[in-house]
TrEMBL record:
Its cofactor is FAD; (6R)-5,10-methylene-5,6,7,8-tetrahydrofolate. It comes from the Bacteria. Keywords: Chromophore, FAD, Flavoprotein, Lyase, Plasmid. One of its GO terms (molecular function) is DNA binding. The lineage of its organism: Bacteria, Pseudomonadati, Pseudomonadota, Alphaproteobacteria, Hyphomicrobiales. Its EC number is 4.1.99.3. It comes from Rhizobium grahamii CCGE 502. Binds 1 FAD per subunit. The keyword Transmembrane helix does not apply. This is Deoxyribodipyrimidine photo-lyase. FAD binds at residues 224, 236-240, 272, 372-374. It catalyses: cyclobutadipyrimidine (in DNA) = 2 pyrimidine residues (in DNA). GO terms for biological process: photoreactive repair; response to light stimulus.
Length: 477
């Protein structure tokens, strides 16, 4: 009797424990991907990630095809579909890799129970994270709330399990009548095709993910610690979109960096691994505190007097706030479905602190526009920046967008790439066009308020305003 292998956030053959276990059973495998009504704990699949999902599924279909198999694409309620498939095929077991977002866990628990009642075993495996979130607990048996002790505990746990190589021989079952054409899922934008530039930046599929990893380890891991904060350089791994859909496993990434320590300074290696550990920490938080995407971790922030000005929010999403580093970041997001981490921190701080717009609006916008949208990383990062989260950046740490731009993009290359209308502006004013003398603006063909906006708020005013609001929230608590 066959077994069902259910692909979810693990669109890969390499280091796929459920696939490996299915192969070991020696039974024919029915490989499926279900388009569920909701994709993760935070709401519907975002448009940018839908684009990425389409191409990642296409690549997985091809990879399975090379092994003589088919990826059956089906849409609807997962439990109903699995029951139908079991009835039709006589399958006796369902295998999958665990997911850790709250809605995913709820669905999987319900399905496991319902299948067990029918005498069907559902077997789940790890692989989305380096370590299962339940393995890392404080001495008191409680979840971690701050990153540094979490990292120490993760280090103590030792190396993650070795990644498993992809299978070379698999017995598949093909049920063509059961599969829907991918095109019918309409995951790609049509008119307008706002994702037209994505394909120049992102190459889908496992092979591309592994090439990216090798390229990063060979060329950019050395110097990562120093260079990772410069948005104009391609100095980070750019693996987050692959990780978001499980096209590559974190254990594979961890393992591939292992050998690099002979060539690469330990500080760079450790720093990179610490970033992977931030991902683990975000999942640890969402696993133990499922309300992370929706509720202030620190409920003192519940009383915060958000302004939520619609015009300001619109200016932020379009990249027309008048602060070049913020606008460049928001336009990179629109054009590439991605934004450099340093700039994510700057634009998030600007939204929450300068514009006093609730972090949940920013989190939702990022979810819709990021190719790497991830329920845990996104929610944890937004709460961190907003000062409402676990281990949050202190609320009074307010980024000055002009100084941040000058520090991390000193020659303005990043700004010039995404804001062509500022391309000819002198370095001295590239992050502060509002301070430039009329003659400088004129020689760069800039008309403030016409070709490029005036600032939507004055940063010094906004800083004082938000600090007063925060102090009042604190006093009122
Ligand atoms: P690298 O520097 O190469 O890091 C390697 C991997 O470590 C990343 O791929 C990622 O999985 C993990 N990582 C790195 N930084 C962080 C971090 N601060 N928190 C958690 N994991 C991290 N990341 C997402 O994957 N999805 C999101 O939806 C997301 N939303 C964010 C929202 C805000 C407001 C902020 C400030 C950060 C957010 N991040 C998110 C974290 C981070 O910006 C991205 O993971 C990183 O920019 C991805 O680029 P990279 O793969 O080149 O990272």
């Amino acid at each position: 009797r066959p077994v069902i292998l259910w692909f979810r956030k693990d669109l890969r053959l390499d280091d796929n424990r459920a696939l490996h276990a299915a192969c070991k059973l020696g039974r024919p495998i029915i490989a499926i991907y279900i388009r569920e009504p909701r994709s993760d704990g935070t709401g519907p699949l975002g448009a940018a990630q839908a684009w990425w999902l389409h191409h990642s599924l296409e690549s997985l279909e091809m990879a399975l095809g090379k092994l003589g198999g088919r990826l059956h694409l089906i849409s609807g309620d997962a439990l109903d579909l699995l029951c139908d498939l079991i009835d039709d095929s006589g399958a006796e077991m369902v295998l999958w890799n665990r997911r850790y977002d709250p809605a995913g866990i709820a669905i999987d628990t319900r399905i496991k129970r319902a299948l067990a009642e029918q005498g069907i075993e559902a077997k789940s495996f790890s692989g989305q994270l380096l370590h299962d979130p339940s393995r890392l607990m404080t001495g008191a048996g409680t979840p971690y709330r701050t990153y540094t002790p979490f990292w120490r505990a993760l280090e103590k746990l030792g190396e993650p399990d070795d990644p498993l190589d992809p299978p070379t021989k698999v017995k598949f079952i093909d049920l063509p009548q059961k599969s829907e054409p991918l095109a019918e899922w309409r995951l790609l934008p049509t008119k307008p095709d706002w994702a037209s530039e994505f394909k120049d930046i992102w190459v889908p599929g496992e092979e591309a993910a592994h090439r990216r990893l090798t390229d990063f380890v060979e060329n950019d891991l050395q110097g990562y610690r120093r260079n990772r904060d410069q948005p104009s350089r391609r100095a980070t791994s750019l693996l987050s979109p692959y990780l978001a859909l499980g096209v590559i496993s974190p254990a594979r990434i961890w393992c591939e960096t292992r050998g690099s320590s002979k060539r690469v300074p330990v500080a760079d290696l450790v720093h990179f691994r610490k970033e992977l550990a931030w991902r683990e920490f975000s999942y640890h938080l969402i696993y133990h505190f499922p309300e992370l995407p929706n509720r202030n971790w620190n409920d003192r922030m519940d009383a915060f007097p958000w302004q939520n000005d619609k015009k300001h929010f619109s200016a932020w999403t379009k990249g027309v706030t008048g602060y070049p580093i913020v606008d460049a970041g928001m336009r990179q997001l629109w054009r590439h479905g991605f934004m450099h981490n340093r700039v994510r921190m700057i634009v998030a701080s600007f939204l929450v602190k300068d514009l006093m717009i609730d972090w949940r609006h920013g989190e939702t916008w990022f979810r819709e526009t990021l190719v790497d949208a991830d329920p845990a990383n996104n929610a944890a990062s937004w709460q961190w920046v907003a000062g409402s989260g676990a281990d949050a950046s202190p609320f009074f740490r307010i980024f000055n967008p002009t100084l941040q731009g000058e520090k991390f993009d000193p020659d303005g290359s990043y700004v010039r790439e995404f804001i062509p209308e500022l391309a000819n502006l002198d370095n001295k004013y590239i992050h502060r066009p509002f301070d430039a003398p009329a003659s400088v603006l004129a020689s760069a063909a800039i008309k403030l308020g016409t070709t490029y906006p005036e600032p939507v708020v004055d940063h010094a005013f906004a800083r004082d305003r938000v600090l007063v609001a925060y102090a009042a929230t604190k006093d009122g608590a």
